[in-house]
Amino acid sequence: MKYIVVIGDGMADFALPELGGKTPLMAARKPNIDRIAREGFCGQVVTVPSGYLPGSDVACMSLFGYDPEKHYTGRAPIEAFGMGIAMDEGDVAFRCNLVCLDVRGPKVFMGDYSAGHITTEEARVLIEDFGNAVGGGEFRFYPGVAYRHLMIWKGGSADMATTPPHDILDREVIDHMPAGSGSRRIIKLMSDSQIFLNGHRVNRDRIGLGARPANSIWLWGQGKKPFFPPFREKYGPDGAVAAAVDLVKGIGALAGFETPLVPGATGYLDTDYAAKAAKGLELLERRDIVYVHIEAPDEASHEGSLHEKIKAIEQIDEKVVGYLLERIGGDVRLMIATDHATPLSMRTHYACPVPFAVFQKGQRLGPGGAYDEQCGGRIFTGEQMVAFFLKELHS
C-alpha cells in the first residue's frame, strides 16, 4: 500500500455573510475533494493541543503524526532542519522575517509581515548583506525563501516571548516586542536592521517601483534543537515531502523524510500546483508515503483576499487532487487535510478541529460526508489520524 497526504494550508475558515453564510470551503467548486469526502471517510482532527498557539509548526507537526506536547521546541529550529542548517545543543534558532514597518506619526505599525512579498532573490541580498555587517560571531543569518529567513544565536537564550508578525498586522509593534531573558539583544538586532536596511539599494529600487520596502527584520519563533523519532520507526512507512516552505520540509527532515526541491513551488499564490502533484507521484515511486503541502490558501487568508482563497482551494482541487485521482489505483490511499483555520476576518490562525477525508478506490472506508468545517464525525488527535490513515481497512 502507498499513501499520499495533500495539505491545503489554512483552508478552514468562518462562515461569511458575502458567501450567504458559507465558508470558502463550502463555496469553492471542488468536485474532486467532494468525491473523496463523499465516497471515503470524513472526520475531524485537533491539530493544536490546548495551551499551544495555532501556528503551522504545531498544526503540521500533528498532521505528520507527532504530538507537539512531546516534541515541540519552537518553530525556527524546525525550519533550520528544513534548510539543512546544523544546530549545536547550545544554539537557539529564530525565524527572521523581512517585514515592512509603517511609521504613522510617533507610532510604528506592522504594515506587512512579508515586505510586500519580496522576491527570494532580493531578500537573499538583504539578509546576506545584513549578516555580513552584524553577524559572523554569535549571530548568524541564513537566507531562505521570499520573506522567510533564519537566524542562529550561538549560546543564546530561548526563554523569551515573541510574536509572529502576521498576528499583528496594522497594529503597533511596541506592544509586541520580544520580552524575557536575552530580549534586549534581540530588540537591538531588530533596531540595527532598520538603520541598515533603510537606505539599501534593494529597498531604493523597490520604492522606485512602487513596492513596499523590507525595512526591518522581525525575530520570533525561537527554540533549541528538536528531536523526532523517525516516522518509519513510529509508523512503518518511509516517506517524502513535496513542499516549498522550510517549516514543512523541516518537519519532514526531522521525521527522516526525503525533502527535495520542487521547481516552481514558491510558498505563495503563484506556486506551480501541477508541479507539486507531479513531484508527489514521482516521489511515491520510491517512497511509501508522500506529503504534498500547498501554502496558498493560508497566504490568501493573511492578505484578507476571499477571491484568492477560493481560487487557491479550487486550484488544489483541480491541479493537485484531480491530477492524483486520475493517476492512482486501488493500491494508493489518499488523504486531504488542512492544518488549522485561517479566518479571513482575522487574517491569522485560529485553533479548532479541522476536517480531513480519506479515500481509496474500490474500498468503502466510510462514513463519508462533506469536506468542510461542518463535516462532523469522529474527532481524532494527529497521532490517531495518521494511525487510522495507515491502517489496513477492508470493505
List the helices and strands and how they pair.
Elements: E1 2-8, H1 24-27, H2 31-39, E2 41-46, H3 56-63, H4 68-71, H5 75-82, E3 92-104, E4 107-112, H6 120-134, E5 139-145, E6 148-153, E7 160-161, E8 179-180, H7 183-198, H8 201-208, E9 216-223, H9 231-235, E10 239-242, H10 246-254, H11 273-284, E11 289-294, H12 296-302, H13 306-327, E12 332-337, E13 354-359, E14 379-381, H14 382-390
Parallel strand pairs: 1-11, 1-12, 2-14, 10-11
Antiparallel strand pairs: 2-13, 3-4, 3-6, 3-9, 5-6, 7-8, 12-13
Helix pairs in contact: 5-10, 11-13, 12-13
Brief digest:
The chain is an alpha/beta fold. The protein contains 14 helices and 14 strands.
Q: Could you describe the 3D structure shown?
A:
The protein has 395 residues and is α/β, with parallel strands linked by helices. It has 2 domains: 2-72 and 228-390, 3-Layer(aba) Sandwich (Alkaline Phosphatase, subunit A), CATH 3.40.720; 92-223, no CATH class. Helices cover 34% and strands 21% of the residues. It is built from 14 helices and 14 strands. It has helices at 24-27, 31-39, 56-63, 68-71, 75-82, 120-134, 183-198, 201-208, 231-235, 246-254, 273-284, 296-302, 306-327, 382-390; strands spanning 2-8, 41-46, 92-104, 107-112, 139-145, 148-153, 160-161, 179-180, 216-223, 239-242, 289-294, 332-337, 354-359, 379-381. The strands form 3 sheets. The chain has a 7-stranded mixed beta sheet with strand order 10-11-1-12-13-2-14, sandwiched between helices. Strands 3, 4, 5, 6 and 9 form a 5-stranded antiparallel beta sheet that branches. Strand 3 (92-104) and strand 4 (107-112) form a beta hairpin. The longest helix is centred in the last third of the chain and has 22 residues, at 306-327. The protein is globular and about 60 Å long. The chain starts with a strand and ends in a 5-residue tail after the last helix. The mean pLDDT is 95.
